Amino acid sequence: MNWVVSCTLCGSSYVYQSGQGLPDMCPVCYEKGKKEVKKFLEKEQKRKEIVSISTPEFANRKILKTLGIVSHEHIFGVGLVKELDLAKFNGGIAISWTEKVRSGRDLAIKSIEDEAIELGGNAVVGVDIIYKVLGAHNDMVMMLVGAKGTAVVVVD
Asked: What is the pLDDT of residues 19-68, one digit of tens each?
């Protein structure tokens, strides 16, 4: 039995030749989706292999090509408790603040690694991370965490 159905992604009509489990997308969108999934999985594999270091050179690897500067800035807010007594927080450490700053740093590094991958690189050298308090307003401290480096192609 033939069914005329509409694709939920592009809206086009197409003929489906079965009565069980009608698909929600046309064959063109299905193939496009498969390509996007494949591209995503390839990028995830490259993410696992990329290396970011703070030094300008690798000790045991050779830089074949320099691709350019990569950078990312992440701004986030941290709640400020009035009359904050850090002695009450795990021996003087504000754990929630530490986690937010660490999360911001990790996001900044991941972003420059993604940018390096887009440029065709497999490493980032000379990584520099900055932290800056931008100001406070209504019991909220605004912070900036940034990362920059140079995207390169390296070989063993």
From this structure: 556 667 777 888 887 888 888 888 888 889 999 999 998 888 999 999 99
Secondary structure (3-state) at 45:
helix
| Rounded Cα distance, 51 and 48, in Å | 8
- CA–CA gap between residue 26 and residue 16 (Å, rounded): 9
SS3 call for 39: helix
Distance CA 65, CA 59 (A): 16
**151 or 45, which is more confident:** 151
pTM above 0.85, yes or no: no
Question: What are the phi and psi torsion angles at 126 (to 5°)?
Answer: 65, 35
Q: How far apart are CA 75 and CA 142, in angstroms?
A: 7
